[in-house]
Amino acid sequence: MRATRRTLIGPVCAAYLLLVLPRLCTAGSVSDAPPPQDSLRQFGLLFDVQAAPHYSSPSSYADGGYTVSLGFGLNFSPVFQMTIQIYTGREMIPRGTAKPVDGWLPVGGASLEGTFFFATGTPVRPYAAAGYGLYTISGGDGYNGGGLSLEAGAEWDFSRFVSLRFGGKYDVIRYHDPTGEASQAVGFQPFTLRAAGAAVRMAFYPDLLP
Amino acid sequence: MTISFPRASALLPLLLFLYGGEARAQDTSDVKPLRLTLVSAVTLGTVIPVHIYQQNAWWQGPRAPFRFENDWAYALNVDKLGHMYAGFLLSRMFRYSLEWSGFSEHTSTFYGSVLGLSYQMYVEVEDGFHRVYGFSPGDAFFNMMGATIPLAQWTFPVLRNFTLKYSYWPSTGYRDELKAGQAKAFLDDYQGTTVWLAVDPHFMMGEKVSSAVPPWLGLAFGVGARDLNESGGGRRQATLALDFNFSRIETESSVLHAVFTLVDFVHLPAPGIRLDGNRVLFGVFYP
Predict the structure, then answer these.
(1) Minimal C-alpha gap between A107 and chain B (Å)
(2) Phi, psi angles (nearest 5°) of residue B149
(3) Is residue B114 pLDDT above 70, yes or no?
(4) Whether complex ipTM tops 0.90
(5) Domain holding A177: CATH number?
(6) Which domain holds residue A195?
(7) How far is it, in rounded angstroms, from Cα B38 to Cα B43?
(8) Across the interface, do A209 and B23 touch by the CB < 8 Å criterion?
(9) Under an 8 A CB cutoff, do A107 and B70 touch?
(10) What pTM does this model have?
């Protein structure tokens, strides 16, 4: 029962962030926000810093964790941008699982992410993002993975150069044992990590293109 | 002889690829093709030998599938500062080269950072295929921070009063490895390295005080690590010292100005106060 509840928390939180938060953000109370800076959201460079705590499904061997990422990329138009994200963080691998190591293990990775905005000319813009990345959970020889991340929420342009984003995130990452040593030692098989969580991102649009 | 930027950019396809069509019309660059060719040749002539050097010094041995490796604790974080310095240095060097080739300051700053970051990330990706190193997200973070410092300085001019500097003296351990023929790249000798944040304090002083302090005199805060061992232990060093900003010396000679600019990437021996583990030391410190 407890496992069922835990399994449900992630998707429910993600659904809330996906469906409810964007509506709340666009429902009003943003009249004091600065006017939209469409000219700065056209073609241009952007940098971002992102924090994303997440909850992982117990069936995927992990309890949860967090990632912090730095990213850089380009705004191709007011409705589309692409970034490269470099991740670091920790993943909690509970004791007693099939993994030969447990505890808070370091996670690292990088991904290519594209974001679509569903509104232009407004201070708060709902968005949906998708990315594909390569990741590693350290410990032993490390476990390599690759997978998809989906994200949705709203981005608030609160100054000329800076915007803040809140969203819900869902990752599906397939890990494997690169050397085969861990698999042989403990009968460990490749596994899929499913993680749901929130993402907070601060982006800088420095208008630096020459 | 000079030609317009769009024609000259054909000499460097990478720049042409990266350059936005709309922005081109606003550019004030007046590119000198001979210089740009020279810069491109020197860049390639440097990158290829450095790649071979790194191949021998770092990337020897069997390659492995690409993987990431978190190494935040390595060398008590001094390597991360080293990555930031390297990103900053490369971006600046590319910027100066492009500026000398006739690109505007803005264009040079932008592409200097792009090229500096690209090179740093290429090294990191190569590490990702190494059996031991792996792609370090921490290193990549600091590469990005270093490479984008010139962009930040362009956007916020007050940041031009700050710069990163480097000092190095081979550690005993590294010298022993050299004698034994086992030494790798000196860049990995973090026990002999100090990375400095240098500030030209004149912008904070009133006019009266500012005029009394020589324009080339500044302050620097340096961080290093000594007695590093395999288990992650070691001793941190923090130093506050006087610093010399040679590029603040006015000169009509462009050669001298270039020399001053290059020397300013290094922190020279200067009096200061050092916190070394639990000890406080006064003296002239290098590195």
Answers:
(1) 7
(2) -55, -45
(3) yes
(4) no
(5) 2.40.160.20
(6) 2-26+38-204
(7) 8
(8) yes
(9) yes
(10) 0.79
